[in-house]
């Protein structure tokens, strides 16, 4: 769902809650109640506004020897984001000219900010292209990575 559709849905829900509360109490709705209602509604329906996925194309800028010298630090970086549930899959391209990282996140900028901490980036070993996509079709076993 696009950010614009999400905003419209949220505003519509706010209006519905406000109208119902005003009708029943003849008082304005406290904004904290509105926010809580919307959050509970989307959590209870399984709706996830953060379901965007990102393909990160990593392109080596240095020799494979230089890549291998810093591979352990790069993998430590990757592990931090696997542990948090942000990264889904990664690995080298064939032939070995770079790699791919599949990630979920809130925005493309968030992913770019994360990549600033990659030792490959800090040391100028790799460059990155981040492609955002909205997975509208996927195998049922992949659903856990979308929600």
Notable traits:
7 helices, 2 domains, elongated, 147 residues, 21% strand, alpha+beta, Alpha-Beta Plaits, 4-stranded antiparallel sheet
Q: Would you give an account of this structure?
A:
The chain has 147 residues and is an alpha+beta fold. The protein has two domains: 3-44, no CATH class; 52-140, 2-Layer Sandwich (Alpha-Beta Plaits). Helix content is 49%, strand content 21%. It has seven helices and four strands. It has helices spanning 3-25, 31-44, 64-69, 71-83, 108-115, 119-122, 143-146, and strands at 52-60, 87-92, 98-105, 126-133. A four-stranded antiparallel sheet has the order 2-3-1-4, covered by helices on one side. Helix 1 crosses helix 2. The longest helix has 23 residues, at 3-25. The two termini are 12 Å apart.
What's the layout of helices and strands?
Blueprint: H1 3-25, H2 31-44, E1 52-60, H3 64-69, H4 71-83, E2 87-92, E3 98-105, H5 108-115, H6 119-122, E4 126-133, H7 143-146
Antiparallel strand pairs: 1-3, 1-4, 2-3
Helix pairs in contact: 1-2
Shape: elongated
CATH topology annotation of the largest domain: Alpha-Beta Plaits
Rg, Å, rounded: 21 Å
Uncertain stretches: 43-48
Beta-strand level of the residues, as a percent range? 15-25%
State the separation between the terminal residues, measured CA to CA.
12 Å
The arrangement of helices and strands along the chain is HHEHHEEHHEH
* Secondary structure tally: strands: 4
Q: What's the overall average pLDDT, rounded?
A: 81
CATH homologous superfamily (4th level) name of the largest domain: Dimeric alpha+beta barrel
